[in-house]
Amino acid sequence: MGFRISVDTGGTFTDIVVMDESGRQTIGKALTTKERIFRGMSEAIEVAARELGLTMKGLLDQTDLLIYGTTRATNAIVTRNVAKTAFLTTMGFPDTLVLKEGGKVNPHDFTQDYPEPYIPRRYTFEIEERMSAEGTASVPFNEAQARSVLEVLKARGFEAVAVCFLWSIANPDHELRMGELINEMLPGVPFTLSHKLVPIVREYRRASATAIDASLKPLMQDHLRGLEADLRATGYRNDILVSTSVGGVMLVDELVDAPIHTAKSGPAMAPVAALTYSTIENLGDNVIVCDTGGTTFDVGLVRDGRLTYSRDTWLGGQWTGHLLGISSVDVRSIGAGGGSIAWIDEGGLMRVGPQSAGADPGPACYGRGGTQPTVSDAACVLGYFDPAFFLGGRMTLDTEAARRAIGTVAERIGRPIEETAWNILNLATELMIKAIQEITIAEGVNPRESTIVAGGGAAGINILPIAQELGCERLVLPKVASALSASGMQFADIVKEETASLVTTSDRFNLEGVNRVLSTLERKLKEFLATLGPRAQAAHRIEFLTEARYLAQVWELETPLEFSRFATEADVEGLVESFHKVHERVFAMRDEGSPVECVNWKARLIVKLAPEVTGEAGPAITALAAPTPSTTRSCYFGGTTPVPTPIYKSGDLKPGYKIVGPAIVEEPTTTLVVFPQTSTTVSGVGNYVFGIG
Amino acid sequence: MDRVQASSAIDPVITAVIANRIDGVVREMTNTLLRAARSAVINSARDFSCAIVTGDNQLLACAEGLPIHIFGVHNQARAMTEFHADLAEGDAFLHNDPYSGNTHPADHCFLVPVFFEGEHLFTAAAKAHQADIGNSIPTTYHAAAKDVYEEGSLIFPAVRIQRNFETVEDVVRMCRSRIRVAGQWYGDFLAGIGAARVAERRLKELCAKYGKDTIKTFMRDWLDYSEQRMIHGIAKLPKAKLVNTGRHDPFEPLLPEGIPLKVELDIDPQAATITVDLRDNIDNIDCGFNESEACTVSSVMAGIFNSLDPEIPRNSGSFRRVKLLMREGAVVGKPRFPHSCSVATTNVADRLVNCTGAAFAQLGDGYGLAEGGVGMGVAFSVVSGKDHRYGDSPYVNQLIIANNGGPASARADGWLTYGLPVVGGLMYRDSVEIDELKHPMEFKHMRLIPGSGGAGRFRGAPGCDIAFGPKEHPVTVIYPCDGQHFAPKGVRGGADGTCAEGWHVSANGLETKLPNVTQIEVKKGELIRGLDASGAGYGDPLKRDPRRVLHDVLEKWETVTRAQAVYGVVFKGSLDDETLAVDVTATTSLRAARAAEATTA
């Protein structure tokens, strides 16, 4: 086996990680080139190749697998820069995408217009048909009327079509016939049928997913095919896979068919990386992953070695944006990061964010004209950054500008600048703690029993106090923290899900029907598996799950099945018990008397690609005393007097070294603050591991 | 640079930190209740609110609580402390008595006193609308109830439901003997207590971390801070005395003229106070439309908050700057026993929110807002019957699938999924598929009505046209609709919204108009059809940005005819080939001519 290359194309930077056979990872970074992704990507590959003493061609020649992740789809959705898409819906129900599911952030805020639907109302067309909840045709499909609508679509030059009929999940005949007509009358125009893409009950969710998917098709097909062609032009002959929203990787062909699965392409990989590093460091398989960027703080979870999933992923803000509708890795984002702006409100309270200085002009300390006091400026004032050697020397910082910016806040609350900076950092930390608590609470996870894995360029500034406050005793900052998602792709499996809706309750369980559904799901996955070749056959497993709830609840919980078919009533009881356990974990109560209602059935194929990671036998924590630091600097840790603080460059450190705070470690792409009364150890593979408490 | 008045008094950092934590606790309660509850009215529609009250019974935090639920929770906590001298850790109470602080009997409020180091520091409150409460008819909104006896609900004036963390099964048995679909109620009961207990746990952790003294200082500071925000908000308003009136629809035969309302506001920016006088209103009426004190206050506060900076925290601190003058025995004010407050959270309350918020528009351009869509009509009805799919088992639930267009403000068009003035868009709407899965019924159509939003410089949001019918057995449909006679009113030259309506549609398609308060059995093959009310407009429609009018026409919010007739905007090009554009010259002259007409008229 040769190299594996993973690529994470973000809005600003393209991160690449090259892993060799021994598992050593090399990072390459370059600015993202939006007009042609391959340019920035090849630049980043060249950076890494140089570090390995290779040319890009030489590196690609020895590469077995390339994995690609991108924010292309997300950006297209949020900016609505997508194909001209028609939405075909059941006659009488044109406003599903407009009305959504209700909900609003502030009941007293009348300053905002109601958000535009994902597909304009003028691109919505009603088709005469109606299925009932039981799957019978209340109104038969009117083929003549459907054809006349398609004529209009043709005349008006629609580039994609989304079809979502009520209860198509109970009986897909009408949607299927609509698909045939589109093929016949609009040959070559891509379309998506809701029951195929996301067969779940609740028309808005299904319609939203369908609309998003169809609208992405022309664009993502061009994008992925173009990238593939560019890579092939370099002479690269081996596999190309794309990372997906379920935290796995998938063939380009599959994603060309259902591009919505690339919507969380990058962020979904952070939990995969987190699980890997926690495992390598022998820190268990319950993990909280935190990714701190310039404007957002993303949190995800791994529970008992499993990624956590959600169907409640909104792009562009809860309620005001668009619901992804598909099951995707649950990564939640808040507007808090290095660029978040501190301010004092009318009542005299200190606030941080949600406004951000963004990448441009960025924090005041970047010296690009920013004057607003940001979290990064606070860190700069506290002495945590080397102004002359920020980001490995790629940038110099303007400390005076940072002090001036923080000074505006300090003056308003009548406190010294350093104390104010410390407070700003603490308040940002609080917001991040709340974001972590919200997701751990929603999933019934106890942070005290979890390991935090931190990533993102700005993570090292305050991840330690975050972990302390949550009572997490274990924390890892991987050496590749600044390219966490790209690194995660190196360890991702091929993951494919098939879902079907069949509503049944435990007290009158439709055993045969459910088994039929499970067989169908399994068959579909097996057919796909057969296309992957014999190596995949040997390394696959299929998990079965149901989305269930107590009768009359409406929000389902994902419950794993411990078997692939229901043999007897005893298996139904087994499922009921599994559900009670899940419910108790999440809501701290179980209702023994209530029947359990299963709504959706899911099968998940997992094909292992990367070698199994195992715990490293790292050196003992006290093996090596602190080395001599490169230098010292005055830093502030809450008091008004500076503390002389040792500064370590990554070159100063070797596995086994223990660094006792206060200290600062400067890696080329991230800075790690070791606060007083804490310490960190460099692990056997070069990660920073903290024992807290 | 602004002088920060409160900075000398409060710690700007620790107050922010603990406030953030408290907010997190309320959100956790909300999440628990939303996801664990059984009835659609809670878990689909989100008709519930969570709050934290201080040990001395002041409302501290309510996160995303519904406007109508917010005020009064602390009065319920006060009732709890007054009725129970032996208050102890491990207690929980059920309160739904509109005469000692609750909104209306259908809102079951679960109260858990939180003790730390032996002291009662907080009360955690989770209030949720129940699907059924044992009324004499299968609805939680009994419009016709002459008094509380006819209403028939079980009343719990802060009744102990847990002692030592153990449930008092007597109460559960009482409820099971009187409440329809008792299993559903019990699931919600568990979820409600669960939410309050979650808060208890978190608040104790918070106290352990910061210490009792810091927490007590925080409570004082946070309320002072909130008051400070309110002072800033009121100080920006012009000094004025405002009078506004409104009217709830007739209720035959009792109230042929409807229910008139009058709100008098005295805004004093120097003193930073708003005095609201509601005493000049009619006496209590012999039906379910009376306001409880909690609903009266919440509605007035909602109207005021709608007209101020939306960031001002809603708690006893900000409420200090509002003085409310109420009369006992008035339809809005303090009810006199045994008048029924069965429908207190919506109808008259909605009108009161509208009336108060719209009053602020009298202050001048840029202030206040228009009236929002009102009425719990067909798309908000309570449906009940037997489900043929499950061995004819009974069902009862409220549909929450209406949108009722939101009001225009001085800065934005109306919010489409506004719901009602008392919820301000917070509630979720049902899914058609979920409603059809849970009830043996099918929807015929559900579509927004073009051109129905009240015109204005900013326009109200349109309403929806909806119809449904049963699949097998008849369905009983009950709703106490308002807004069928008196439309939501526009302000500062903005047009009124449209009225709600309802019809019974026979098997052969014959439509018969229904009264605004309806109880009807709809048989298989028949339909019930209704229109939501729309929101009213703000400002002169002739001053609406022509680009907004164009967008409205392209997106079918408005019609080409109305664009010209009402907004004075002339188009060129065609809608069908997507070339429609504003004819600027023609529009300018048409608008000028219209303005001249208006002046001469």
Automatic annotation (TrEMBL), chain A:
Q: Where does the Hydantoinase A/oxoprolinase domain lie?
A: 206-497
Identify the residues that the record assigns to the Acetophenone carboxylase-like C-terminal domain, covering every copy. 519-682
Q: Which organism is it from?
A: Enhydrobacter aerosaccus
Q: Where is the Hydantoinase/oxoprolinase N-terminal domain?
A: 4-185
Q: Which GO terms describe its biological process?
A: glutathione metabolic process
Any one of the GO CC terms: cytosol
Which GO terms label this protein's molecular function in UniProt? 5-oxoprolinase (ATP-hydrolyzing) activity
Q: Which Pfam families match?
A: Hydant_A_C, Hydant_A_N, Hydantoinase_A
Record protein name field = N-methylhydantoinase A
From TrEMBL, chain B:
> What is one cellular component GO term in this UniProt entry?
cytosol
Pfam families in alphabetical order: Hydantoinase_B
Instruction: List, in alphabetical order, the Gene Ontology terms for molecular function in this entry.
Output: 5-oxoprolinase (ATP-hydrolyzing) activity
One GO BP annotation of this record? glutathione metabolic process
Q: Per the database record, which ranges form the Hydantoinase B/oxoprolinase domain?
A: 11-541
This protein's source sits in the domain of life called Bacteria
PANTHER family with a match to the protein in the record: 5-OXOPROLINASE RELATED, HYPOTHETICAL 5-OXOPROLINASE (EUROFUNG)-RELATED
Tell me the protein's name: N-methylhydantoinase B
| Organism expressing this protein natively | Enhydrobacter aerosaccus
